[in-house]
Amino acid sequence: KTETALPGQDVRSLAADPADGRVLYAGTQGDGVFKSLDGGRTWSQSGLPGQIIKSIAVTPGEGRTLYAGAKPPMVFVSRDGGASWEEQNSFRRIPGRSLWRSPAESPGTAYVQSLAVSPTDSRVILAGIELGAVVRSEDGGATWSRHLPGALRDCHTLIFHNNDGAWAYEAGGTGGGASLSRDGGASWNKAGAGLDRHYAVACAADPVRPDLWYISVSPGPGKAHSGGNAEAAIYRMRERGPWVKQSGGLPQPLDWMPYGLATVPGRAGTVIAALQNGEVWASEDSGETWSRLSVELGPIRPGLQAISMD
């Protein structure tokens, strides 16, 4: 069954409280943040009116602390579950910020496409700019680094492993498609070996094995967002690679871009893919075999799917 929530709102980002999946946050195109306490059935405005919110991250274990990334590129923090917000002003002073430009949306203004908070150190935050940089804070957003060498400047998805804060993963456009950190995001290594296309949109990591992760890739932005001719594929990497293309029931290639990849905490080997056209595919054996689920989400944007497996 598919239900529609927040009618009339142009939703650009979603996040769930890791400690309570009934608590959800949605970032909108100009109306700030909305919050749900009942798994998305009902919503109320939760601050930052007038802001375009491209990304939201909830601090693991501290559900009342969350961060919101905006367009133009700003980061806001709430320490009371979205009741009040303050801007992290140091984000405006990151070296090289004047060079951030995004070709994805006219007039080329960059934005904070992805935010991630370490599951083991709530002071460590990663922010990915489309198109500009991946930067890191070690003090809860009070100060920020310059761009981290080895990370992809065209950041699309940026995540930590769900319980091992040493591992962080990036899917991006120009620069090879994927990058990996094994020291909490302090340093990065591009991880493109084995890919036959290099425009990546989403990534996910196995909840038990941090060295097992997945990425969705297309030949380029024109294909990825073409609406039916994505020529996309899902790849899996074990340990140090290389990437291996996944088939086992998946169409080859995928006509619709997998805009979302997700794994399920506590369920090793389960990975879910949400496609641009609303199809949902799942694997229970680390991507060896796939089946299409009997659910249609409707057209989705990158980063807009929160999937629960009951």
Essential attributes:
single chain; 310 residues; mainly beta; 23 strands; 39% strand; globular; disordered C terminus
User: Which whole number gives the mean pLDDT?
Assistant: 92
Low-confidence stretches: 304-310
How much β-strand is present in the residues?
35-45%
H and E string = EEEEEEEEEEEEEEEEEHEEEEEE
Q: What does the largest sheet look like?
A: 4 strands, antiparallel
Number of helices: 1
| Outline | globular
Radius of gyration: 18 Å
Structural class by secondary-structure content: mainly beta
What's the end-to-end separation, in Å? 14 Å
State the total count of DSSP E strands.
Answer: 23
Spatial strand sequence of the major β-sheet: 1-2-3-4
Could you estimate the helical fraction of the residues in percent?
A: under 10%
Please render the helix and strand layout as text:
Layout: E1 11-17, E2 20-28, E3 33-36, E4 44-45, E5 52-58, E6 66-71, E7 74-78, E8 86-87, E9 111-117, E10 125-130, E11 134-137, E12 155-160, E13 168-172, E14 178-181, E15 189-190, E16 199-205, E17 212-218, H1 221-224, E18 233-238, E19 244-245, E20 258-263, E21 271-275, E22 279-283, E23 291-296
Antiparallel strand pairs: 1-2, 2-3, 3-4, 5-6, 6-7, 7-8, 9-10, 10-11, 12-13, 13-14, 14-15, 16-17, 17-18, 18-19, 20-21, 21-22, 22-23
Polypeptide structure, described:
The protein has a 4-stranded antiparallel β-sheet, with no helix packed on it. Helices cover 1% and strands 39% of the residues. The chain is built from 1 helix and 23 strands. Strand 9 and strand 10 form a beta hairpin. By secondary structure, the chain is mostly beta strands. The longest helix has 4 residues.
